[in-house]
Amino acid sequence: MEIRSTTDEDLEVFVDTAYAAFARFPETPVEGGGLWWSALEMDRGLLAVTAQGRPVGTAAAYSFELTLPGEVLVPAAGVTAVGVLPSHRRRGVLSSMMRHQLAELRARGEFLSVLLASEATIYGRFGYGPATSTARLTVARHQAALAVPRARAAAGAPAGGPDGGQDGGSVELLRRSACGEILEEVYDRYRRTQPGALARPHRWWALGAGQPPVTPTPRLVAVHRDADGVPDGYASYSVDEARTLTVDETIATDDAVFTALARFVLGHDLVSQVVFKHVPPGHPLRWQLTDFRAGTVSNDTDWLWVRLLDVPRALTARGWSTDGELVLDVQDPFLGEHGRHLLSVRDGKADCVPTDREPDLSLDVRDLGSVYLGGTAPSTLVRAGHVRAHRPGAAALADALFGAERPPHCLHWF
Q: Which Gene3D superfamilies match (predicted)?
């Protein structure tokens, strides 16, 4: 078995093999893009090939930017298209590709990789931990009224309109085909401040790669503009024959913009319910409904998984909101590595150096990936029996240190 890098000439066989691994057939290429594989970077792909030259496994990576706590932007490899033909599973092909890929990422100088897991039991053994989550919120149209904000009413502020009618903005309805540049610009502004968000490179938009609204699939788009007419949010949606309005994604630069867009789609005529496909954890929309039970949460699931390739670099890259010191004893079973690190945080910056001091926490690299963006409290993993706290107060300090200013959330599909 050989694991080799791919070139542009391998695109067709790579795509065919990846589809066969999932018992599917490639879509027919269409003018205007819209194919997930049109954005593949073939210099970052891998093929597992038998001694007879038959391709039996695939793996690839995209070049992304990931937003960390503190609004820090760092490069991250987006692992994708990982699959092994059914005829060659449970023979070590996947492990060989994953080990080969991690070595290549390190050789490129990358210290983080991320992925979306097709199955939750696969990637933990390769050092990936679930780091963000997302949920679906369904609101019955006849119960969709938004309440008057009580804090505004108590302060004597007038009610009505988006965020009490005081944001001074407006909502314009456009077709997807007429607002591609607006979507790209607004998403880029949003992702630079949202922990856990991934960049969408221009070529993704140009090629229509991924899922709506990146693809040219017909959609209606509610575009919010601020008081100066500058776009600062959008909601991409469609209505099906069952009169369900489904919002692909809502992008907003602040809560007031999100509320304005939510008010717009919730007030849509001739629909029976409104489905928000991707709502971040702890989002206030349910609390804004007059009838709290009108909003039903479902599909609460993991989304972005994180893998640290260089623990000190990763920990010193992100921002921190609390001062303190922790000694982390980190095991990396898949790569056969172990390190003990003194994490010292002062004024939002961290140092991370080797140490012989007794550990405060002992954890697997996958668990460090889960807490890295601030979406999972270290104490949760202590209570689950995955992380060991060696002294009283260690878990609470870790919670304070790793906590982010806002929950991490990722909308990008890859």
A: 3.40.630.30, SCP2 sterol-binding domain
Concerning whether 414 is annotated as a catalytic residue, the answer is: yes
- The pLDDT tens digits of the residues spanning 257-296 come to 999 999 999 999 999 999 999 999 999 999 999 999 999 9
Cα radius of gyration rounded to whole Å, the chain: 23
Q: Which residues contact 20 (CB under 8 A, 6 or more apart)?
A: 85
Q: DSSP of 103-116, one letter per residue?
A: HHHHHTT--EEEEE
Q: DSSP class of residue 318?
A: S
Longest alpha-carbon distance in the chain: 78
Buried b (16+ CB within 10 A) or exposed e, 30-42: eeebbbbbbbbbe
pTM over 0.85: yes
Per-residue pLDDT tens over the stretch 79-130 = 999 999 999 999 999 999 999 999 999 999 999 999 999 999 999 999 999 9
Q: Map tokens 């919010």 to a residue.
A: 224
Known binding residues: 82-84, 90-95, 118-119
- For tokens 């492990």, what's the residue? 95
Residue 29 confidence (pLDDT): 56
Task: Residue 163: name the closest of 176, 152, 154 by CA.
Answer: 152
**Which of 3.40.630.30, 3.20.20.100, 3.30.300.90, 3.40.640.10 is the CATH number of 2-110?**
3.40.630.30
> What residues form the annotated binding site for acetyl-CoA?
82-84, 90-95, 118-119
For the question of residue 123 being annotated catalytic, the response is yes
The active-site residue out of 276, 372, 402, 414 is 414
Residues in the chain: 414
Q: Of 62, 123, 237, 402, which residue is the catalytic one?
A: 123
Fold exhibited by the domain 134-176+218-300: Aminopeptidase (3.40.630)
Architecture of domain 311-402: 2-Layer Sandwich (3.30)
Instruction: Give, in order, the Cα–Cα distances in Å from 157 to each of 162, 168, 254, 311, 329.
Output: 13, 14, 19, 49, 52
**What is the residue type of 119?**
E
